[in-house]
Amino acid sequence: MTFDSTPAIQLEVEIIDKILDILSTPDRWCKDQRVKGQSFCLIGARTMVFNEYSFGERTDHAKIKVTWALHQEAVRRNFRGVIHFNDFWRTTHSDVIDFLMKVRESLATS
């Protein structure tokens, strides 16, 4: 068994960075569907990153921490979860980027 020396926090931040890359422009983000052409909602982008990228031996733990951090930020904003935040009629692309940056910050400092 090989030892993955990449710190777990770095893996979690890397996952958020890849989600940010996917949702980098307003035309790459959508509501009400996980995937709509070349656009993704928050959950769709997270799922794509989880499915497409390998983050070493600590992948499962990092995925759980990222999923929990996304949920916690949605709750902090008074939503029942990530889907409700993403699909709320007043949520904008800027809100989604701010949301992800807050999650990234919380993971980087945890």
What topology does this entry show?
Blueprint: H1 8-22, E1 35-36, E2 39-40, H2 42-52, H3 59-76, H4 82-87, H5 93-108
Antiparallel strand pairs: 1-2
Biggest sheet, spatial arrangement of strands: 1-2
Number of strands: 2
Which structural class do you get from the secondary structure elements?
mainly alpha
Shape: globular
Span between termini: 27 Å
How many H/I helical runs? Answer: 5
Percent range for β-strand residues = under 5%
Please give the share of residues in helix.
55-70%
Uncertain spans, ≥5 residues at pLDDT below 50?
1-5
Radius of gyration over all CA atoms, rounded: 14 Å
- Tally of separate domains: 1
Which whole number gives the mean pLDDT? 90
Query: H/E element string?
Result: HEEHHHH
Biggest sheet statistics = 2 strands, antiparallel
Structure characterization notes:
The protein has 110 residues and is mainly alpha-helical. The chain has one domain. The protein contains five helices and two strands. The chain has helices spanning 8-22, 42-52, 59-76, 82-87, 93-108, and strands spanning 35-36, 39-40. It has a two-stranded antiparallel sheet with strand order 1-2. A hairpin with a 2-residue loop joins strand 1 and strand 2. The model is unreliable at 1-5 (pLDDT under 50).
